[in-house]
Automatic annotation (TrEMBL):
GO terms for cellular component: ATP-binding cassette (ABC) transporter complex; outer membrane-bounded periplasmic space. This is ABC-type oligopeptide transport system, periplasmic component. It holds the Pfam family SBP_bac_5. Belongs to the bacterial solute-binding protein 5 family. Transmembrane segments: none annotated. Gene3D superfamilies: Dipeptide-binding Protein, Domain 1, Dipeptide-binding Protein, Domain 3, Periplasmic binding protein-like II. Keywords: Signal, Transport. It comes from Pyrinomonas methylaliphatogenes. Residues 92-558 form the Solute-binding protein family domain. InterPro entries: Peptide/Ni-bd, SBP_5, SBP_5_dom. It is found in: Cell envelope. The keyword Ion transport does not apply. One of its GO terms (biological process) is peptide transport.
């Protein structure tokens, strides 16, 4: 959400549902035509309030805490809701199940007051206890959510998710405190202990006094990990000698139901952006009753209970996902769509033909084929706006030859990003890891740009040279490197471009390989690839930290194997800084440190590049191309249609 990975897989012929297959065959001869038409294809709205939308790949899961992909996020925003929702234009947080909230002066304590009329799709009330369950579940080691790191700002959340232990003196029953640990010269950022609380807010409780007390010392949960830590800090080993280790429990994390309609969250350090983060799918409330009853089958039609404006009516894999309006949704009176039909298609030509013929009403981002952009972008239903998303290459830094920074730098320097931008037409070249021109006043650092001569020198210095010391491509172990991507036309174009660049500038033919979206995500996360893998990220919230925090932990969506405690401390230092401009400066310092380590190769900042019929209202080309479906509707009066880009200044109720 999220952050979110965008992209997916091509629709396979044998798996296409009868509906899509029939439509595709009916219009197979459609193609881009010249002419003076205002729109790309037909503009006859469907009857009633039905939206037909191409959502991307077949979803990895309908469980909002299991996937970080954008194809899934589009579905989650219809089925589930959290404390806050994204504003459809600005993407700033707006009230959702929480009607209001309070924040402490130092941004370490957040109290949310829930609506009394918020209900599940079975009519039962949604309470603060449901959110406590959701947060604990999302962080549980058993669930192994790739997005769990997003909640690490919550006190003891990381410790619980990573299986950490507290340290207790068996004689006194007292827990050892983090502040008392002998220094090793490698300390993490200080915690929020002693920070401010909300004056006059929710009442104090025993749990609140516990969670606001000085932070307990947390150690790794396994003997092997503790041994490595003790080797680096012998004083710590002496400090905990004779003590017992107590596993951190779900009940220890800083999330508390003060009462049925008051939720209090306590962080380990200041995070001024935390409310923005809570719109992400990881924090959207999920139904304990259905999960405990049906297990992994809880998301199937007939089992699923939802919290958002729509409920799941049917799901035919690789064909269609149908949702209908949730009558128990707290704001159901203002939800205009009666039905949402999502088509999991990724073949660009298929979706463009369906759109042109009037069988679908809108597409997701980056869906106009490269060869069609110059024609389509002048039409009034083309959505062209800045997007907080980037494309990059992940590098598996745990395997040779890519564990050598000289080799990683060489492959980055051998890519002409200006040529890539000209080829794709809808991107800007990028050498940083934050998107270009999205965050005002952010002093974005720049990485190394195209320099094939230096690239070859670096490879020679890394040992791939002849007897005279000159670079020799025949010495490079090409068999140990490949580029893996998830199947789609656009991803294939980029893969072939990179392959050609490395052949031209390094004399190396790097194999490229595609795989299905769901398989690709797990394959990449577990570092099963050798060499390179496609990477792309859309903001989870409007802040540079949503990109930089990908490498805060070894797991999750990091996908590179690179992790550095110094980088983690730099992010911590930035995020506990309350002055906005100073915080930006410190984030930029962390970003420069990441770029210098080169676990990734930045490629491009994307623009939105999608189509929407003029009668589709309430759907905006926002910087994340995520749409709160409760605001979307079909306008049957042509006088009120969007003739061009929708008015981004429209006021949302």
């Amino acid at each position: 959400m999220s952050g979110l990975i965008f992209g997916g897989r091509r629709m396979r012929g044998r798996a296409i549902g009868s509906t899509i297959l029939a439509l595709t065959l009916a219009i197979a001869s459609c193609s881009v035509q010249s002419g003076e038409a205002e729109y790309f294809g037909k503009t006859a709205p469907p009857e009633g309030q039905v939206l037909r939308y191409v959502s991307g790949a077949e979803p990895e899961s309908l469980d909002p805490q299991m996937s970080t992909g954008q194809p899934e996020a589009r579905l989650y925003m219809a089925l589930y809701e959290g404390l806050v929702e994204y504003h459809p234009v600005t993407l700033e947080p707006i009230p959702a199940i929480a009607e209001r909230w309070e924040v402490s002066a130092d941004s370490t304590e957040f109290t949310f007051y829930l609506r009394r009329n918020a209900r599940w799709s079975n009519g039962e009330p949604i309470t603060a206890q449901d959110f406590v369950y959701t947060f604990r579940r999302g962080l549980s080691p058993e669930l192994a959510s790739r997005a769990a790191y997003l909640a690490y700002y919550i006190k003891y959340a990381q410790a619980y998710n990573e299986g950490g232990v507290f340290v207790r003196d068996p004689r006194t029953g007292e827990f050892l405190l983090k502040r008392d640990v002998p220094p090793s010269g490698d300390e993490s950022a200080p915690s929020a202990e002693g920070a401010t609380v909300i004056e006059g807010g929710a009442p104090d409780t025993p749990f609140h006094r516990f969670i606001r007390s000085p932070s307990r010392l947390v150690l790794p949960g396994t003997e092997q990990e503790r041994a490595r830590l003790f080797a680096a800090n012998p004083k710590l080993k002496s400090f905990v000698a004779g003590k017992e280790f107590v596993p951190v429990r779900a009940e220890d994390i800083g999330v508390e139901a003060v009462d049925d309609y008051t939720l209090r969250i306590t962080l380990d350090q200041p995070a001024p952006f935390f409310v923005k983060l809570l719109a992400h799918q990881l924090f959207r409330v999920v139904p304990r009753k259905a999960i405990e009853r049906y297990g992994e089958a809880w998301t199937k039609p007939g089992n699923i209970i939802t919290s958002g404006p729509f409920i799941l009516q049917s799901h035919r894999p690789y064909s269609e996902i149908v949702m209908v309006r949730n009558p128990y949704y707290w704001d159901a009176a203002n939800v205009k769509l009666d039905k949402l039909i999502f088509y999991p298609i990724e073949d660009m030509t298929t979706m463009m033909n369906l759109y042109k013929a009037g069988y679908i009403d809108a597409t997701y981002n980056h869906t106009v084929p490269t060869g069609w952009v110059d024609f389509v972008r002048r039409l009034k239903d083309y959505m062209d706006a800045p997007e907080a998303s980037i494309s990059y290459v992940m590098i598996n830094t745990t395997r040779p030859p890519m564990n050598d920074i000289r080799v990683r730098r060489a492959f980055s320097l051998a890519i002409d990003r200006q040529a890539l931008a000209k080829y794709l037409r809808v991107v800007k070249p990028l050498t940083a890891f934050s998107p270009e021109g999205i965050f005002p006043n952010y002093p974005q650092p720049k990485g190394e740009d195209f320099n094939p001569e230096l690239a070859r020198k670096l490879l020679a210095a890394a040992g791939y040279r002849d007897a005279a010391g000159n670079y020799d491509p025949s010495k490079f172990p090409v068999s140990e490197v490949e580029y893996v991507y998830n199947t789609s036309d656009r991803n294939k174009e980029v893969a072939e471009f990179l392959q050609a660049q490395w052949k031209q500038n390094l004399g190396l033919t790097i194999p490229i390989r595609n795989m299905e979206w769901k398989t690709f995500l797990d394959y990449r996360a577990k570092l099963n690839y050798k060499g390179f893998a496609r990477g792309a990220w859309v903001s989870d919230y409007m802040d540079p930290n949503t990109f930089l925090s990908l490498f805060y932990t070894r797991g999750g969506d990091n996908g590179t194997g690179w992790w550095d405690p110094k980088y983690m401390r730099l992010l911590d230092q930035a995020n506990r800084t309350l002055d906005p401009q100073r915080r930006y400066e410190l984030l930029a310092k962390a970003e420069k440190y990441l770029l210098d380590a080169c676990p990734i190769i930045p490629l491009a900042t994307y623009a939105t590049n999608w189509l929407k019929k003029p009668y589709v209202k309430g759907m905006y080309p926002n910087p994340m191309t995520l749409h709160p479906w409760k605001f979307v509707y079909i306008e049957h009066d042509p006088a009120k249609w969007d003739r061009g880009m929708p008015q981004m200044a429209e006021v949302v109720r």
